[in-house]
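Budget justification note: compute hours in this period were largely spent on complex prediction jobs such as the one shown. Inputs:
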Amino acid sequence: MTTSTKREAQAQERRNQLIDVARRLFAEKGMERTSIRDIADAAGVAPGLIYHYFENKDALFWAIIERHNPLAEMTALFAQAETLPVREFMLLAATRGYALMGERQDLLRIVFHEALSRPEMLQRIRVLQQMGIALLVGYLNGRIAAGELRPHNAEATARMLVGSILALRLTGAPAEPYITDIIDNLLCGVAAP
Amino acid sequence: MTTSTKREAQAQERRNQLIDVARRLFAEKGMERTSIRDIADAAGVAPGLIYHYFENKDALFWAIIERHNPLAEMTALFAQAETLPVREFMLLAATRGYALMGERQDLLRIVFHEALSRPEMLQRIRVLQQMGIALLVGYLNGRIAAGELRPHNAEATARMLVGSILALRLTGAPAEPYITDIIDNLLCGVAAP
Amino acid sequence: MTTSTKREAQAQERRNQLIDVARRLFAEKGMERTSIRDIADAAGVAPGLIYHYFENKDALFWAIIERHNPLAEMTALFAQAETLPVREFMLLAATRGYALMGERQDLLRIVFHEALSRPEMLQRIRVLQQMGIALLVGYLNGRIAAGELRPHNAEATARMLVGSILALRLTGAPAEPYITDIIDNLLCGVAAP
Amino acid sequence: MTTSTKREAQAQERRNQLIDVARRLFAEKGMERTSIRDIADAAGVAPGLIYHYFENKDALFWAIIERHNPLAEMTALFAQAETLPVREFMLLAATRGYALMGERQDLLRIVFHEALSRPEMLQRIRVLQQMGIALLVGYLNGRIAAGELRPHNAEATARMLVGSILALRLTGAPAEPYITDIIDNLLCGVAAP
DNA sequence: CATGAATGAGGGTTCATTCAT
DNA sequence: AATGAATGAACCCTCATTCAT
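Corresponding output:
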């Protein structure tokens, strides 16, 4: 029992190691430019071993995705939304989103990269993204109902916010001053009074 | 003279055909998943011929990019910016940008895809993107000077606009009602008055 | 332990087999006219396997050279030079050199062939050749010092000897009577007394 | 008539140009590493034109060989052999041979290169070489009959001479002092008196 | 005489994957 | 659990050669 448990733990560790190594390499060079041998070398194991843990390269890819789901964290963040004024919370959420995309930047690259060339990927990505937007839309509509935001199409706002943050990351732009400016623009508008 | 011109014209035609075929395939499957043979087959041509027209696969890629450069059109659009009120022109520009990304959606996929995994591509693409943003920033600062927009960081606004439109395209969302809402949000803000 | 050793031994054997097969084919048709597939077929092996053992075709070439380096044997021969009179030793050395070029005739063909069209090969080969000549020059100068040969430019003699033997091999001439005649000519000259 | 003659002359010129260009390139990089396109580019013509003048690449190769036969010159040289003392003439012949191999060094490279990998080439080369040796043997036997050289196997001497000179060229060694030393060694021997 | 578009076989090489050990 | 030898298909690219113009 104990031994088998130890074995299992060891196996789990090895599995995670392979996932992490693969994530790094995939992010650096893209999935196709990363060979199984590259991964094996970087992990210090033989190429054959990878097939002991994953059916094939694609399965390894999905394992990476599954291991890093950012939705949980975002959900937690929105749960405490009510405790802050609108502007503060939006700043917080935007900053956190920006940071998250940074922490998982390699993942972001992988996902985007693959999503753009593999329809079945795109499908799975859109589901996630839809959930993110839904979270945001829910919050915004709550604020509208509370009279803190003027009545309007919340989905457009949500898309603006996500798109703007995403664009910052994609272009390598820094968080400040852009994030603050974005939120202020969004809240107050840029038209002359 | 006539003959040589005819020959040249034919060659140009063939070149364009190859570019178009490649564009389609690259967009469908990604550049790496598209083999030279795939392109040749789709064009009804021997694989070797492609190397008669393009030095290698990468050169073919850049030929695609060059053939469809949206910058010229955008520049022309901004040249007549003064003739319209702010809101009208921004709607027009956003709509045109959205449409352009649509017409060139396959191109967009290709460019994104490659940019994400090949630093030297990212470099060249950022140059283009920077020029687009500069165009927009120039316009916005003009409107600020004219007192039509309140003084603010125009670059943040430009990035919001581009990011928002891009996000629409990437998520497959329709132009309306989003574009109008986005422009209105941007101009007037979403905060309650 | 035993198993890994067996594996290693097997791998070494396979490596040597590939070297030998390649040596034969390279000698028969020249390196460029021999494809990796030719080698693989002749060895009864998949083409990819060759790249498991050698980085590329060139590396395979150098592996052939390294496996059959005649310098060690020649060095050993010259170590016992003192035990024989000049004429006997020179006959022995010439005969041994002729034999060696025969045993390695295919190698000779390969080396010459490549040396003639690839500067970087010529470079590496000249180093080897220089060492051979140096060996001979050292010996000759020793004999001059010992008063057995008249004082003269030993390098010219060394080059004559090597050139003469090489020419025999290149033209397919037999060892006898040429070698004896060559040595005698070299020692006594052909001028009438 | 005149026109056709002019045309013919022009054609002959073009033919020779192609031969010369090909000779240079073949010598530089070897025949296989030189493509028809390389030759065409260097000559400033279209690839197709080469096939107007030569059936294929091999025919072009043979045309090069035929255009540059060194035998005529050597025969002329030996015709005046009697006018000089042995040592002087042998020096002259050796020097001339060395020079010839230099002038035609590129040709030498080509011939050697191809001879080593193509049996039918080797055959043709050996015929030429045999004629060269025969020329030399005839001379040497004449000198022996005249009492200027001691009676001995002239063919061995001829092979020594040719081999020595060839080795100088192949190793890139300079003419002097080697040639003089070689002739002196050959005439007087290197043994202590 | 001259062009250069077009062919298609074959080159070296990479790589996901399998399997005996 | 782990190895690494072995496979074979596919890749990008080169090139001698042909032929309509």
